[in-house]
Amino acid sequence: MKEHKSHVRLPRRSKRSSSRPYTGSDDELPFGPSQACRCEHCAIRNRPKPTDEDNLRSTAMLRKVDAAVEKNFEETLVDLEDFVRLQSVSADLELIAESLKALCLYRDRLERMRFNIFEYNINAPRGACDTSPHPKVVFAHYFSSPSKNTILIYAYLDVAPAKFEDGWLSEPFEFYMNDDMLYGRGVCTGKGMAVCWLQAIEAWLELNDDLPINIKFIVEIMHAVGSVGLQHYLEVKREFFLDVDCIVFGNNSWINDDKPMMSCSLTGWAHFGLEMRGAAKTLEGGLAGGLVYEPMTDVCALMNSLVDNLHVLQIPAIQHMVRPTLVTEWALIESAIFSEYAYKEQFGIRRLRFELTKAELLHNRWCQSTMSMHGIEGCYSRKGSSMAMPMSVMAKFSIKLLPDQTVNLVHTHIEEFLRTKCEELKTRTNLKVHLLDSCDPSMWGLDARYSKALVRSISRVYQLEPDLSMNIVTCLPIASTFKKITAKPIILMPYAHRMDYSHVVNESIPKQCFLRNIKLCTGLVHELSLLPARCKCDVIFEYCNRQGIAEMLKPHTEKNLHRPTIFAHMRRTKSVKPRNQQPAEPDPNKRKNLRDWLCAPFRRKRMSTTK
Amino acid sequence: MKEHKSHVRLPRRSKRSSSRPYTGSDDELPFGPSQACRCEHCAIRNRPKPTDEDNLRSTAMLRKVDAAVEKNFEETLVDLEDFVRLQSVSADLELIAESLKALCLYRDRLERMRFNIFEYNINAPRGACDTSPHPKVVFAHYFSSPSKNTILIYAYLDVAPAKFEDGWLSEPFEFYMNDDMLYGRGVCTGKGMAVCWLQAIEAWLELNDDLPINIKFIVEIMHAVGSVGLQHYLEVKREFFLDVDCIVFGNNSWINDDKPMMSCSLTGWAHFGLEMRGAAKTLEGGLAGGLVYEPMTDVCALMNSLVDNLHVLQIPAIQHMVRPTLVTEWALIESAIFSEYAYKEQFGIRRLRFELTKAELLHNRWCQSTMSMHGIEGCYSRKGSSMAMPMSVMAKFSIKLLPDQTVNLVHTHIEEFLRTKCEELKTRTNLKVHLLDSCDPSMWGLDARYSKALVRSISRVYQLEPDLSMNIVTCLPIASTFKKITAKPIILMPYAHRMDYSHVVNESIPKQCFLRNIKLCTGLVHELSLLPARCKCDVIFEYCNRQGIAEMLKPHTEKNLHRPTIFAHMRRTKSVKPRNQQPAEPDPNKRKNLRDWLCAPFRRKRMSTTK
Predict the structure, then answer these.
(1) Which domain holds residue B39?
(2) Which of A158, A416, B81, B496 could form a disulfide linkage to A90, CB 3.0–4.6 angstroms apart?
(3) Which residues pair with A388 in a beta bridge?
C-alpha cells in the first residue's frame, strides 16, 4: 500500500463565485448553497466544506479498502471463474439461458448489497414460436444519501462466441490461471469489468456499512449483439437517469504495455439509406426484364460513385471536418502494439488498407472518419437464385463520425453528392436519401472534473500519469447511445488493451492488471465521493429530503463508531449457515420495513452456480 | 360446326425408310414395325396403317365432341366460376387451404374420369412452427392403350394476388360475365387453361367411353411463386415421364387481336453469383472500419462495371449470339397491342427503356437477352441499420438467354469480363464467379410434327393460319425446366394475350376465345391421336403388352357399337341422385377389380365447393 501515499490528492476547489447557477455543465461545482434548491433545510446546500481531516479520513478508508481488496483477491478470482464458466454467448439464441444465469448471479450479488433491483424483459426480434426465455436487463440502485454523488455503472455479462477449436490454448469457458495471466472468455471484456466493480463495492461495504457515493447499475446480456432492446428502456425509464451525475464505462483503450490510455472522446455515426424506386412493386424478371430500369443497377452505380478504387470516400469536405491529430498523438500511435500480420492471420484477410506503415494504418483506424457499406434492403438476399426484380431497394452505408464532424453537415454533404451523381448518371429511378440512425461524436475536456478524478485514480494505482488523448477516439456505441439519450458526462475507465485480439482467441489479462482495475474502481468511488454534490431538487421533487441508507444508519454508526461493521462480522462467520429466523428478502419494490431489510446480514459468500 | 370441314387434314406420312431406328427426335415417325420393340406380338409394331375411313371416322368424332363442348358451355362457365371463387393466392401462405381446395376439386374431377391420381407433398421452406397444411402437387394418368400417343398436360390452379381496391371493376374472386367477356382472377391464366382441358376431356369421354390418346397431368398450386418443390418431383419421379411423347403447356402468346401466335422457342437463363470475400467472418464496423477492404464496395464496383448508364450489358459478345429478328417478326412486333402509358401507370414506373418506339421497346423485351440484378446474399438486408461489415457477400444477377445463346459460352464471357475488371480495379478482396442455376434456351422447328399438329388444330378452330415465330421467344420458366429435365418435345398452346395486363387488374378473356380454347384442346387430342405412336418397350418393360382402358372396354364396345355410352347415359340422368349401391371409388393405387371401377358411372356433375 506504500505506493499510494505520494499520490493522494485533495480535490481542487472552484475559485468562481458560488452564486453562479449550476448549468449542468461538466465543470467543477462550487461548494455552498445551490441555486436550484429552494428547500430551507437542504442538507446539501447547507453542507459544510470538507475539512482536511475529513479528506484524510476518507483517504485512510480508501487505503483500508484497497488492503481488503488485496486480501480478498483469491476469492475474487473464484468469482471471476464462476462468471467465465457460464457460456453466455448472446449471439447464440440457444445459450440465452446461460446468459440469464449470469445475469441472475450478478443481480443476486447486487441485491445482497442492498441494491434495489428492477428487471425488464428485452423483446428481441425472434421467431414466432421461439419459446426460449426472454433476455433481460437489470437496473439496480444503491441510494446512500441525497448529499452524495450518484454514478451509473454500465456492465455487461455476455461474450462473443468462442470454441477451443478456434485456437485456444485452454477451454475458453474454463477459467485458467498461470503465474501472472488470467485466461478465459470475457476476462478482459464485460465479465472482467463487472467482477471488478462487484469486488470494489463489496470491499467498501465490508469495511464501512455504507458506500461513499450512490451507485446505479445497468447490467445487460445483449452487448455483443448491439444491445438489442436496451435503447428502448433508456428512453422509457428516463427518470432512472435524473439524479445520475456521470456514467462509467469500462473500455479497452490501452494501446501499449507501458501505461493505461485515457480516452476523452467517443465516435458518433450516421447511417444512411440510399433508396431507389423504379416501380410500385417487385416485377418478374422474365416478364419485365429489358423493359424497365432496375433500381439495383442504379444503386450499385451510386454506391460505387461514393468511393474510389481504394475505398476512400470521395467527399473530401467530410474528412476535413475531423480534428487534426496532434504530434503527441502520432507518437502514441507509433508506440501502439499492433501486429499487422497477426491481425490478417486471425481474420483471414489478404490485404489491409494503408498497410505501408503501422502508424498510417492505425491512424486511419482510430483518427479518421470511414465509410462502410452494410447491405441492401429489399433485394433478394437469401441463398439460391430468384427471378424477381426488386423495384424498391435501399442500400445501407454508414459513416463513422469523429469530433468535430456533425451529423447535420455530413448528411447535407452526402445528400448533395448523391443528388449530383444522380443527375450525372441520368438515373431513371427515383432517389431518396434517408438518415436512418445517427449520433453525434462527443468529446470532453481533459480538464473536466470527472476526467480529473479518473486521472487521479489512475495515477494513484499505477504510479503513472496515464496517456491522454482526445483525437484517438474510442468507439463504444453503447456509450455514445447513453450520451445521446441522457446527455450525462461519461467516464471511460481504461480496462485492458484495444480489442484487436481480445475478442478472438486466448482472451487474457495479467493478474496484476486485474487487481489494479479493482483498485481503480475503489479509487474512483473515493475520488467521486470527494467531488461536491449538488442538490437535485430541480429534477426530483424534494430530493434533498430523501432518506437514504446513510441517513438510516447514522444513529447506529454514531453510537458504535468503533464497532466492527455488519459486513466484517459476517465475513468472519461466513461458514455459519444462515439462520432460519432471518427474514426472507422481500420484493424490493414492495419493501415495507426498511430497517429490517437494512439490518439483514450481508453474506459475502457467492451463490453457487449450477455446476 | 361448318367451319371445320374445309380444314380437316390427314396426317402426313413419312417418306423415309421405315427401317431407320427411332432416335427420339421430334420428327415424324414411320408407320410400321419399330426397331426398338422386339416383342413378337407388339400391337404397335404390327398395327395396320390407318385407312381413310379410320381418319374420316375420327374426324366425325371430333365434330361430335366439339358440338358437345358447345352444348355444355353454360356448365363449363359454372365450372370456371367454381374455380375462380377459390382464392388460391399462392403468394399468401394463409390462403394455402384455398389453393388446396382448388387442387382437390380438380383432382376429384380427374379421378372421376378414371385418372390414376398420385399426390405429393411440397416441402416449401416455411417457419418452424407453421402448422398450415403443406401444398401438394398432383400427378394423374389416364392410360387408354399402349398403342396410343401419350401427352403430359401441365396445369396450375394458383393465381397472383388481387384486391378489389387495386382497380378491379368487379370483385376479382367473383366470376363476372358480361355479353362477351369473362372476368375474374385466373380466367386467362392457370384456372382458365385447366378448365378448358377438363371440359375437352369430359366431352371426349361423354361421347366415347375412352380417349383417343393417353393423357397425363401434372397439376400444381405453386406456379406463381416459382413452382417451389415441383422440380424435386420432376427429378425424382422420372419414370412418370418415360412414356410421355410430348408436354403441353398453355401460354399467353397472342400479341395482337387478329390471330393466335404460336411460339416455337423458350427462353433459358443463367443465374450468376459474384462472390467477394474479404475476411473469414463478418467484422464489427466500429472496430475494423477503415482498416480492411470491404467486399460490399468491390461488389458494387464490379456490378456497376457490367452495365452502362442505360443498363445495357457491356459484353457485346453475349448479345451477338442471339438470332437476328426476321423482317416478318418485326412486322409482327409492330402489330402488337401494347400501351406504354398503361404499362407505366399500372406499375408506377416513371421511365421505360427504349421507349422511343413501341417496336424497339417490345423487341428489346421479347427478342433480346437482358440482364437483371436481383440482390446480394450475405449483406445486411433487414430494416433498420447495422454496424456489421459483411466480409463475404455474393451479388446475384441473371441473364435471360435466347436461342442461340448457350449457358457455357455466356458463363465463360461473364467470368472473363469480371476477372479482367477485377484486375483493372485492383480489388483487394477475392473474386469467385458461381453459376447458380442455368437452363439453355430451346427452340424447335416450325415443321416438327407436334408443331404441325398444333397448327392444324389452330387452323381448324380459328379458320386462320396462326402467326409463327421462333425469335419472339416465350418466357415460361416452368416449361424450360420440364424441357431441361425430361428432354421431351414441348407444345405451347396459345391461350390468351401476352400477360402485360392479365396478371394485374380486370383479368378477362372473351367468351368466344374461351370456347375456342376448349375446341383447341379437343382438336389437339384428335390431331395427336392421328400421329403414329411408337412402342416404348425400350424404356418400359413389356410396354406393348400392357392393358389400358381401351383394351378392357374393347369386347364391350364391339358388342354394343351403337349403344349410347356410359357417359352420355349419365348425362341424361344426372339429376338422379347417385345410387347408394354404387361402389365407393377405391384408392387407385390399391385398385383390385379394374372392371368394377371401369364401369362405375361417370358423374359429370361438379362437386360442390364450399360456398
Answers:
(1) 2-11+19-264+443-536
(2) A158
(3) A284
